[in-house]
Structure formats: C-alpha cells, structure tokens
From TrEMBL:
A Gene Ontology molecular function term of the record: RNA-directed DNA polymerase activity
Top-rank taxon, per record: Eukaryota
Gene3D superfamilies: 1.10.340.70, 3.30.70.270, Acid Proteases, HIV Type 1 Reverse Transcriptase, subunit A, domain 1, Ribonuclease H-like superfamily/Ribonuclease H
EC number(s) stated in the UniProt entry for this protein: 2.7.7.49
Limits of the Reverse transcriptase domain: 319-505
InterPro entries xrefs: DNA/RNA_pol_sf, Integrase_cat-core, Integrase_H2C2, Peptidase_aspartic_dom_sf, Retrovirus_Pol_polyprotein, Rev_trsase/Diguanyl_cyclase, RNaseH-like_sf, RNaseH_sf
Protein name, entry field: RNA-directed DNA polymerase
Integrase catalytic domain mapped to chain residues: 861-1018
A GO CC term attached to the entry: DNA polymerase complex
UniProt keyword terms in alphabetical order: Endonuclease, Hydrolase, Multifunctional enzyme, Nuclease, Nucleotidyltransferase, RNA-directed DNA polymerase, Transferase
GO biological process: DNA integration
Length: 1142
C-alpha cells in the first residue's frame, strides 16, 4: 500500500486517487493526487509532495524565494490558503480533465466544510529527554520525556520518535502527561554497544490527538489502493526487464525473436529486485504455537566478510517492506551462508544467503501437514518430450503475506537491530507446506503431461516450440492472476535436454543427471556402517532405473542389519562395483505411451524378486521402469515355483496404475500360473494372489528358465536395434578440405589479388599456384635451411578453424604452432596461435603455471628406438564408460614415443598382458625402468622379465624425477584429457585422440616428433586428412629419402639434445650436488606423514654402494635393511670433533 506521511512523520489516511493536469504560470504539469478527509487540518486544497519535486527535478531557492523548473522560475506566494484553481497560483485544469475536476470537487464536498482549528492542533513540538540515560547492549530502559510548555494540558499526545544514528529504537506512542509535565516511554538498544543519551537531547516530536480524527478505510478503498500500487509495480517491472536477461542464444534468430517478444509481453510476471517482488494473499499461513511463552536467543556474530552484504541485504528488505523494525518478545538469530561462486567469475565479490535459525520456534509450532508429490511421478509424466522450460520463482517464500499476529512470532535479531518479516520467511516449519499449497492452487487445472512443479521449480514440456509457447502463456496468465513473479536470471528456456530434480530429461526419456551419477561413481569404498548407509541412500533415489536393484545390493543391505559386524566381503565389493557400473552408463528409461503395447517381465531368485515394465516400438522393447524388492525370511523358504508366482503378483501390484484396464503381455516362466491354476485345493495366500491377478487382462508368454529377463531384454534390443551412438574420435572438419580452401582463397581480397597476378605470370615473392590442386602456396626454407618446404596459404576466414583443430588436444603454444606450420602458413601465424592458446578457457582451468626445474638435469643416452622403455601407472581415475580406472603408460626413452592402455585393475597379471601387446607391436626392449610398486617387483613380474632376458631397472624410492620422461608425459596427458573431456567418464575415449597428437607433436628436447624418430615418418592428423599429395615420387626414391631422413634425424637428434641441456645449464647453476663416499654416515628423510612431534628424518644409515646419476645404496645401522635413494633425500652426518669421540 502507498503510505502518505507529513513532515512530522504522521501517516495520512486517504479515500481514493486521481490524476490531474494543472498549469503553473504557462507550464503544464501532470500529477497524481490522493483524496483525503481534512481531519488533519491542511490549509490548502491541494499539496504537491516530494514525488512531484523529484520527478520534475524542481529546485527550491529559499534565498530568492523561487522555484526552478528547467529554465523557468516561479516566485513564492505569500502564506495564505488558496483554492486549487485560484488566480493567485495561476493554476488551470485542461478541458479534457473537467470531469476529473468535478469528481475531485464532489469527493471533497461529500466530506463537509473545512473546520477552523487552533494552531496547536496541526503543529508538532520538539520533545527532550529529562535526564541522562545509559542503555546496555540488547536491553531496554524506561525514560522520561518533557512535555513542551506551550501544549495544552489534559490532552492526549502523539509521540513520534526522531531518526537516530546511535541504533536505539523508540516506538510511536499515545501518551497522557503526568502532573510533572512528563510522560514515559521505552527505549531499546538492539546493538552490541553501550548507548549514552545526554539530558535535553531531542528525542522526537509531540502533537495533540483527537479521537474523531481516526478514519478506517472501507474494503473498496483498500482495493483501490492495492490496484494503484500494483500498477506502479508493473511499470517498474517493465522498466527493469531487458532482452539480455533471457538466455536464448541456442535458438535461431526467428525463434529467438518470437520467444523474446512473448517474454517481454508478459513483463508483469518477472521481477529482478525485492521492490518489484510479487505479493499474494491467496494462501494465508497460520503459525499456531503449542504455548505462548516468548522465546528469545542472542544474535549470532556476523563474519567480517559478510557484514557489508548483511547490512545491504537488511536495507534492501526494509526498503521493499519485506521486513520491518520489531519490538517483539520473540527473537531468533540470523546466519549468513556463503553461496557458491560462479567459476567463470572468480573476481566477483562473495555472496551470502540470509537464513533465520528457527529451530527453537519450529519445536513448538503445530505442523501443517500436506502430501508433496512423488518426484518419480513428476519425472515419468514430463519425460520424453522434445523441448523444455524450467521456471524459478524469485525469492519464492517472500511472495506470501503474513498475518499481523504471526509477524511478531517470526522476529529475528542481528547486530544491526531487531526485525520481523511481513512475508513468509525461509526456514520456518510450515513454509514449504504453505508454498506448495499456493502453487497447487495457482496451477490447478493446467498441470499434467505439459506442466509439472515441485515447490518453486515449474517445468513445462512440449513437442514443438509453437505448443510450448501456448503452454508457457497459460502458466504466465496464472502467475499474473496470483501476482507471483519469476526470476529471469534463473530461467531455462527452450532446451532439448534439461536437468530437473536430479534427472536429465530429453526426447529419449530420463536418466540420472551427470552430477548425481558422479556422486555415486566417485563414492569411495565404504569403511564403516555410516558410509554404507550413505551410499545406499544415494542409490535408493535411482532404484527405479536399476534392474534387480534389491538383489544386487543385498550384500550391502546385510551390513546395515542390527548387531552385524562390519566385514567388507568379496560379495560386497562386487555389489559395490556392479551398481557403480550401472549408474556410470546412465541408464535411460522412456515414459509411458498409452498408444503402444505393454509387456511385463518378472523374475525371482533366492533372495529377491523383480519386474520390468516395457513397451514395444518398431520390434524393439524399451524399459519404462524397474521394480525389485528383497524377500522376507519367510518368503525365502518358498519353493522356486511359488517365488516365481510371487514375483508376478508383486510386479503387477507395483505397476497397478499402468496395467489396470490395459491388455498386456506377461513374459515369464508360465509354469507357476498353470501349475497353481490346475490345483483343486490351493494354499490361501496363493489363492489370494491368483484372485488379484484375475482382475487384470494379460496373456502369458513363456520364457525359458535358463534365459533370465535381463538376458532376454538385452538380446531383443541387440538383435532388433542398430541405434548405436558410434563415437568418431578423429572426425575431420569439412572446412579443412582442399575444395573449401580453394573457394575461401578466391573469396579473400588479398589472396585473390595474388592469385590473379600469378595467373597472368606476374612474380609475387615466394607465392605460386599448385599445378594439381590450383591452391595458392608459398615456398619457405626449412628451419635447418637445407631444403625448401611448400606450404598452403590459409585465408583469413579459415584461420580460427585451423587453430582450433590443431589445438584440439589442448597442448601448449609451441606444439600447436608446429602442428600448423608443418603444411600451412599465413601472416602473423605464431601470434594468432599464441593468442588463441593463451585465451583458451579449458587450458586456463586445467593447466597449472609453469615452474622452474629444481633438480640437476641428467641426459639419458640410448643407442636406438625400442632399446629402453619405462612404464608407470596413472590412477585411480574416475571410472570411465568402459569400466576403466587406471592407465598404464609406456614410453620409449630414445624417441619419447608414448603408449597408454586403460585398465580396470593394476595387478601384475594385467600389466603383463599389456606388455605382451606392446612387445607384439614394437618388439622386445633391452631395459625396462619402473618404480618400486609391488605390482612391478612381484615374483610374477620378475619371472616374466627374466624369461624374456629384459634387464629390470628400478628407480630410487620416493623420487619420481628418476623417471622424469614418463612423469612429464603424465602431466601433459592429465592436462589434455581434463581439457578435452566434457564429462569425467569420457577419458578412456579421448585417450586414443591424445596419443595420436602427442606422438606427432614436436618434442622440446629432440626438436622432432616421437613418431618421426620411432617410425621414420610423421603420421597424418585430422588437420591433414584432406591434404592431397602434390607431387608423386617413385618407390625407390621414396625409400632412399626415408633412409636419408633417418640418418639426418639421428644426427640432428643428438645435436638438439646436447644443445638443450647446454641451454638449460643456467637454470641449475649454483645448485650444488653433495658427494658422499663409501662408509659415510647419513640420515634419510621420513617419507611417512609425521605428526607434530614425530621425527622428520630417520637414521643413521651407512653408504655401502655408489650408483650413477647421484643414487646410492644405504644400509640401516639399526636393522641392517638396505634401500636405494637419490642424493636429494639424504644428508650427511658430520664427524664429531676429536674431543667428543669415544
């Protein structure tokens, strides 16, 4: 409601409102006037308020007694009451508003003539405090205030407190003065500081009061006021709404414009601030308490980083009227919870959510019970559509008004003061129930297949954009009718796939969302009962998506039984892995289609029963829902034939809603039905089951007992469906084809001019036209300047495409540049590549900043490729789509050629199988380098290597830099896979793509690609897939070139490596490597995770052997155990002085 206050803070009641046009001097104005009784003794028939001055930018010049409006000046008149349209003020009303004027005058006449009153009835007087007062933090005091002498005695007085900066609170009050010309009131200190108020401090204003001045507005007047306020709010909503508030970039231009027009047309349903928030009384919450004893708690301290936000939030809520100052005897603390920061906006200030801790109040609040809808039913009803929208209400609970008697019960305290809500707050016991009741009432009649909701999230689905807009408009109309508003920033509009309530919804059906699937698949192996219960709790949300769920998790459920010791058995491990694999594959179920035939498969085991509801389309069975439950101890004793019948009965009962009244096919072992139906005397429980099944219409179809339902379902789908999503890892971009390059070259202004000049035999530096393809090319000297290289000139329109393709594995600037310069060129190629890589968001997110080398660099000399290899394991990684958790990496020390195999486990047997594959492709090495992991030094591994006569070299323990080639490759691989994978499940698929690019990228040491050294040639990349050979060489010449290439590569390889270590010598200058001698006493770093008082080094040890590359074998002087360590992990014990020796 609009509240009109006078200068002394008195609220003026009014009857109606009217818009009038009037003229001052020669300038016309338009303003809104409020019609009121003259009981507040105004001297004028019309008064212009601060809103008029602000809107028209009026400046009041008190020195010259003038009003300044733009370039015009208006002189002040003498203080004499005048009529609204008198000649003195030169006020005139336009012809078009004569009717409004008459109605305005009529309203005034209806309330009688103006009453002559004394001056004191409309003047307010300053009120001072009678004595000094001190108010302790969070306490109240009674104070005495002086009544001014010029106010008539024996009259009731209205006290209006003055705004203050100290933070104390005094309420407006109606008072009767004492004989000592004083009156009493209460002062509250809601801050955490002591407040001192000196004597004769002005505390507020005082005026006389007449009971006859009180006017209560009628219902029609209140309706007019609310309508007026709503009109202004609608205008504010329209002004603050922008096209950019809606995320519609995924639509084409026409659909985007149509959707924007629809949304902007319904501006009344959107709000971006508290001021324009919706407000409704369609549902009125009631907070009935078990007792009326007030509850109070002290305010919680606010963190320093949240104080600025807290003050701003309180001010915003106060300004919007959502909260108000309170002197309630109820008081509950507030906490500020930090919101998740947007990863794309790391520089933004942290944001917080204000939450009142109503736990104490909730314990004495009577419950308002309602039944929330089942999430599974919502998902089933809405899934399987082509296009979706999700609407989110803005500050949803704040849109419901509270009763006056309930506001004080919900009061809260902060360091800034005490307040109480005027709208329904978050955190109170029945807030969710009342809000659900409101939305149910608002959307009643339009929910169903197209519209569903859960609390403040409304989802709309349709098969076409046209149908979606119709449904969207219907929802908007309902929300506008109830004056509810949406948050435009949180809308998800017109998307073919959407995440809602933990499920991904699309045209194919519904499946677990990636976020929830990650929680299940990345859940660590449970180590106690609590963790098992947490894991089963997460799984239970998706049990409808898992076939035979009860049977699979039965070993885990056993662990949760009372008095059962926690023993993680093989069965538990298998159940844990199986259910993670199922969720990892994101099983997708379709929603029910009443036009398709229905089938039901049932099965029973010794511990559980299950059923699958299916529908058949194009000779393919699609699952709709899975049902399973564990058998009770009594049911486990049933014979198998009765358990089969129980499975049929329980499954039909579970799918009662879909099967009743429909004809369906029952796919099961038909023996239970025929066996029991033929019995003259049936067990009572079986008779009841058969009687219940008799109410359904179905046709039993026999499935052999050896073929369980899961096998049947998988075989039917595999035999009849070829809808497999083939993954194309190396799919080239069509824009890279020779034909497209030729077209773009001719359309490029600069290149087309060069081509035209060449066609008329003009010389253009190194440019020439290729005879076979007609492409514009350029001759450049190779980096070693021993040969000329021909490269294709790339037009400006294709530069970004080529850089994107070369940067696909997200390598650094140098390697990306080398991929391109191999066969292509344009002006500024390196700078463009550098700029693109430096601004790649995926690289910025997944790559750490480079660090300087901190250890001595020792080159490893090898005679030829394949002579020495190193192996290591990366993981444990998130489980991939093909159920892999680890990567076995193998690198050739000479060429740096890398092989990587995804593995499910890292046992010695599994690693040996991978080594056999590697040896079959690349031959046997002479040396194999590993660390000291148990799977590398097991008896099985040692026997395998001895049999093949491969020398096994083990690196120093706790020194990964001893295997530096492989460790550096691991870093590159992790960064690349993290940047390429949109989902963590995809890493095993992208691993092949990474290997191709890695082995064909220029190595920083050798200056050659690993594949070029290993095979004598480079392999083609997607960047080169359309490249056609320009010249054709005969076979003998080609082989001769290969031999010459291999020789030159080896010669240049050695020079490059030597030069690399020479160039990097300054990085290690000054880092002295200590030298130890045989028999020296040393101490070793403690590699465990020590606590505060645990020793940081162990010893003493004695050096018994000196190895190469700064490695030593040492022996403990305590237990004679030996170990191999790098010099960086040991330090020498200095010899004691002669006087201290024994």
């Amino acid at each position: 409601m609009v509240r009109i206050k006078t200068i002394d803070n008195t609220v003026v009641p009014y009857m109606s409102a009217i818009n009038l046009k009037f003229k001052i001097k020669k300038k016309w104005f338009s303003n809104q006037f409020f019609v009121t009784l003259n009981s507040w003794n105004a001297q004028y028939h019309a008064i212009l308020g601060y809103d008029f001055l602000q809107r028209n930018k009026v400046v009041i010049d008190t020195v010259n007694k003038q009003l300044l409006v733009g370039n015009q000046k208006f002189d002040f008149e003498e203080n004499s009451p005048t009529n609204v349209c008198s000649e003195t003020t030169n006020c005139d009303i336009s012809e078009s508003d004569k009717n409004k004027k008459e109605s305005f005058e009529q309203i005034n006449n209806n309330f009688g003539e103006k009453v002559n009153v004394s001056e004191e009835t409309f003047h307010a007087f300053n009120v001072k405090i009678a004595n000094n007062i001190t108010v302790q933090p969070f306490s109240t005091e009674i104070i005495n205030l002086k009544v001014p002498k010029n106010i008539s005695k024996n009259k009731d007085l209205i006290f209006i407190p003055k705004k203050n900066k100290l933070g104390y609170l005094i309420n407006e009050s109606l008072n009767v003065p004492t004989n000592a010309n004083l009156f009493h009131t209460i002062i509250e200190n809601n801050t955490n500081k002591v407040i001192h108020v000196r004597k004769n401090t002005i505390m507020g204003k005082l005026s006389t009061f007449d009971v006859n001045d009180i006017i209560s507005p009628s219902e029609s007047e209140i309706y007019q006021i609310n309508n007026l306020n709503l009109y202004e709010i609608h205008k504010m909503r329209r002004d603050e709404l922008l096209k950019s508030d809606f995320k519609l970039d995924h639509l084409n231009d026409k659909d985007k414009k149509d959707m924007q027009d629809l949304l902007l047309k319904n501006y009344k349903v959107f709000s971006k601030s508290y001021k324009t928030l919706g407000e409704t009384s369609a549902v009125i919450p009631e907070f009935s308490l078990l007792h009326n004893f007030p509850l109070q708690t002290k305010p919680y301290s606010i963190p320093l980083m949240a104080k600025k936000y807290a003050q701003q939030e309180i001010n915003n809520l106060l300004e919007a009227g959502i909260i108000e100052p309170s002197s309630s005897s109820y008081c509950f603390p507030v906490i500020f919870i930090k919101k998740k920061q947007n990863p794309n906006d790391s520089n933004s200030e942290p944001k917080f959510r204000m939450v009142v801790d109503y736990r104490l109040l909730n314990s004495i609040t009577e419950t308002f019970k309602i039944c929330l809808p089942k999430i599974s039913e919502i998902i089933k009803n809405i899934a399987g559509r082509n296009i979706y929208c999700v609407l989110d209400l803005k500050s949803a609970f704040f849109q419901i008004k509270l009763r006056d008697e309930d506001k004080r019960k919900l009061a809260f305290c902060t360091e800034m003061g005490n307040y109480q809500p005027t709208r329904l707050p978050f955190g109170s016991k029945n807030s969710t129930s009342y809000f659900h009741t409101l939305i149910s009432k608002c959307l009643n009649g339009i929910t169903g297949k197209n519209v569903q909701f859960f609390l403040d999230d409304i989802i709309i689905a349709a098969d076409s954009l046209c149908a979606l807009k119709v449904t969207l408009q219907a929802v908007f109309d309902r929300l506008i009718k109830f004056n509810l508003t949406l948050d435009p920033a949180k809308l998800q509009l017109c998307k073919p796939e959407i995440t809602y309530l933990g499920f991904d919804l699309n045209a194919n059906g519904f499946s677990p969302s990636e976020q929830n699937a990650n929680k299940v698949t990345n859940f660590p192996r449970p180590k106690n009962l609590k963790q098992v219960q947490m894991f089963l709790g997460m799984l239970n949300y998706f049990r409808g998506l898992i076939y035979d769920y009860a049977g699979i998790v039965e070993p885990l459920v056993k662990l949760t039984k009372k008095n059962t010791p926690f023993v993680w058995s093989v069965e538990c491990e298998n159940a844990f892995n199986t259910v993670q694999e199922i969720i990892l594959k994101k099983p997708t179920l379709k929603n029910f289609d009443p036009n398709l035939p229905i089938s039901l498969i049932t099965d029973a085991s010794k511990i559980a029963i299950c059923g699958i509801l299916l529908q058949k389309k194009d000779n393919v069975f699609y699952p709709l829902e899975f049902f399973s439950r564990k058998l009770t101890p009594a049911e486990c004793k049933y014979p198998s034939i009765r358990r089969e019948l129980l499975a049929i009965y329980a499954s039909v009962k579970h799918f009662h809603d879909q099967l009743l009244g429909e004809k369906f096919e029952l796919l099961t072992d038909a023996k239970p039905l025929t066996e029991y139906q033929s019995l003259d005397k049936k067990p009572e429980i079986v008779a009841r089951w058969l009687l219940y099944l008799g109410t359904f219409s179905f046709t039993p179809t026999h499935i052999p007992g050896s073929l369980n339902p899961a096998d049947f379902l998988s075989r039917v789908v595999e035999e009849n469906s070829l809808n497999v999503n083939n993954i194309t890892l190396f799919q080239p971009n069509d824009k890279l084809s020779m034909q497209n390059i030729s077209i773009e070259q001719k359309q490029d202004a600069i290149l087309s001019k060069i081509m035209n000049d060449l066609s008329v035999n003009k010389q253009c530096k190194q440019y020439f036209l290729d005879v076979n393809s007609g492409l514009l090319m350029i001759k450049n000297a190779h980096k070693n300047k021993k040969k000329i290289v021909n490269r294709i000139v790339i037009p400006k329109s294709l530069i970004k495409v080529y850089i994107e393709t070369a940067h696909a594995p997200h390598f650094g600037v140098r390697k990306t540049f080398e991929f391109i310069r191999h066969k292509y060129q344009w002006k500024g190629m390196y700078l463009d590549t550098k700029n693109f890589c430096e601004h790649c968001e995926k690289c910025l997110e997944n790559k750490p900043k480079a660090k300087l080398t901190q250890t001595q660099m020792i080159p490893k000399r090898n005679l030829a490729p394949g002579q020495c290899i190193a192996i290591d394991v990366v993981g444990k990684l998130p489980r991939s789509t093909d159920n892999k958790n680890f990567i076995l990496t193998i690198i050739d020390h000479y060429s740096r050629y890398l092989e990587a195999y995804p593995l499910q486990n890292i046992t010695s047997r599994t690693i040996i199988n991978c080594l056999n594959k590697y040896f079959a492709n690349f031959g046997l090495p002479k040396f194999l380098i590993t660390d000291n992991a148990t799977n590398f030094i097991s008896n099985e591994m040692v026997e395998f290597l001895d049999r093949l006569n491969i020398q096994h070299r083990k690196s120093s323990i706790y020194y990964p830099m001893a295997n530096g080639l492989l460790e550096r490759a691991h870093r590159t691989m992790k960064e690349s896979l993290a940047s390429m994978c949109e989902s963590t499940f995809q890493w095993s698929e992208k691993l092949l793509f990474f290997k191709l690019y890695y082995n064909n990228s220029i190595h920083s040491v050798t200056k050659f690609a690993p594949a070029e050294i290993f095979f004598g040639r480079k392999q083609n990349l997607p960047l080169d897939s359309f490249f056609e050979p320009i010249t054709v060489e005969n076979e003998s010449k080609y082989l001769k070139n290969i031999r010459n290439n291999m020789c030159s590569i080896r010669n240049e390889f050695a020079k490059n490596e030597e030069q690399y270590f020479k160039n990097n010598a300054p990085h290690i200058k000054g880092r002295k490597v200590p030298n130890f001698n045989l028999g020296d006493k040393v101490f070793v770093k403690n590699f465990s995770h020590p606590h505060v008082f645990q020793e940081k080094y162990k010893g003493p040890f004695e050096i018994i052997k000196i190895l190469r590359n700064n490695n030593y074998i040492i022996k403990s002087l305590k237990d004679n155990k030996t170990m191999k360590l790098n010099v960086s992990k040991i330090f020498k014990q200095e010899q004691p002085r002669p006087n201290l020796r024994n």
